[in-house]
């Protein structure tokens, strides 16, 4: 056996041992003495049956049960009336339902009537306490037993596993023989499950050898546990080999191997085995169908998926919670959202929180944010319970639009449902508020998360990085490390981006080196691209080029693009042509390259070269993405294009624009009159100007105006926003395809460095 210290480094997990079986089966499973197994089975009393069926058990219900069964304060069973089989039923019920106090009451009764010396009763007590999570009481009962048999040991191992105490489980297993016991098939099933969860490969193989030696491989439960263990080890060759040699295969065996293949993306193999299973005469259950549908969806074969759907309908399982939800997931994976919604509607009253979450997630994945918001609203209207799997995807929908008002409304639902301290929901909220340009709200959410993880830290660092506060981003990065969190590639990308946005060359270079040397994080394409941007944006074009030439990976178009942008900013036509050549070699239809070169040629007086770029675009039928800006007003998104007059409020928008331009020309713009006079006709009606003017006439006084644009904001529009914020006394937040600009009182958060 490997050292136990190695095994205990893993997190707790949940492992069910006894399951919902009849009492006599439970006796056989735990290897109880034959005298106990052969006792006459006494059915659960009527009062216990009624109590077990109660949807909610309160203190009053427990008291009534105890009084009616004669086990309360005013009633006692005589020893001869207290049948052990009745005790089994009650203790089993307590363990299954988590009724710890009820179980303690019966334990007191057992002690009072002298049955606490019975091995069988004590084993049931251990099982009850373990399932209720009171492992200390289980150990106390175990230690007080005069004789320890394999059944009591099995129950305690299961309890340790339930509580994540794997070191104790292994120690107990290694002591079996010292108590005169030999592990039975259920012992090995439990231990193999633990090894699979811990990825304890060496220990698992040793147990496998013992199973073969003890001739337990013919036991279906043991062979299935072995099969599941190897699947969790990602040792699919071993799992498949074991499956082929199994003397008996039941539905659990087939489902385990199919599930293992699915988890390791062997979708075709999984479906092949699914068909072989049916040919062998074993029909799939709900869980097998769920895996098969997921595998089929990942194969992207719509015809096979519809055939499988037909089989599910034939078996009468299409409307069940698990299979019905799997169908929604399958059609979402195939981007057939209409079919996913149809399946959801056909489930009718059988829809659950799980199926609703699946529909919302599928719509978000397929970029149908508005439909996802509608589905979520319907969920709220029906007063359906929401959980973290409801909130996280719908917040992604808000972020993708982005919709600040929807984000606020869903945040209110999060607070109402008491999920505001949840780590996953909190991280999604931070991301959504960041995409909406509200870093203040993102910071508030972060401060309320009860146990922030690395993802939460990454999200809040990214929020400050993208919203013009690089110092705060770097400060949070250092605080995160001090608090013991290990930064990931995403962390470094956010911090390097902050350095790039603010021109912190030295900080950026030091952080990049620490990423490799101190934290052992291998840079990816995005990190190299960020470093090129950091150097190029500051004017160090030659150094940026040297950095690209010395990268350990082959430079991609994404790495060359920031160099081209830097050349455009600093008028370096020679290196711009060099960078453009490399980009077009990998992405010949990149319109931005042609447009950038054309503009640079015009500024250099090389009009013929500029015209050649335009001709090339026309010849290759390459079109530049049109600039588009949008703003959210009264829960509705309004889109604008350059010189757009399709909006019903166009006249008011253009009048507002003229009014602001008149005020600007009378003040600060006079210092830039020459350059602006040339650009005015071309730039005056850019989409972001129209959007901000619509916001100014539509939003309440003092409310921030949030604008989003698909392209980088031009210099003229950036200047316009600064002065518009001063003249109108409004905060204007503009997000382009690279970062956020927060304009206030004539200044911008970027410090004119963007």
Automatic annotation (TrEMBL):
Q: What Pfam family does this protein match (any one)?
A: PPR_2
Q: State if Cytoplasm is listed as a keyword.
A: no
Q: What is this protein called?
A: DYW domain-containing protein
SUPFAM superfamilies (UniProt xref): TPR-like
Q: Which organism is it from?
A: Gossypium davidsonii (Davidson's cotton)
The protein's matches in PANTHER family, at most eight in alphabetical order, are given as: PENTATRICOPEPTIDE REPEAT-CONTAINING PROTEIN, TETRATRICOPEPTIDE-LIKE HELICAL DOMAIN-CONTAINING PROTEIN-RELATED
Classification lineage: Eukaryota, Viridiplantae, Streptophyta, Embryophyta, Tracheophyta
| Biological process terms in GO annotation | RNA modification
Which GO terms fall under molecular function for this chain's record?
RNA binding; zinc ion binding
Identify the residues that the record assigns to the DYW domain, covering every copy: 677-754
Which family is this sequence assigned to? Belongs to the PPR family. PCMP-H subfamily.
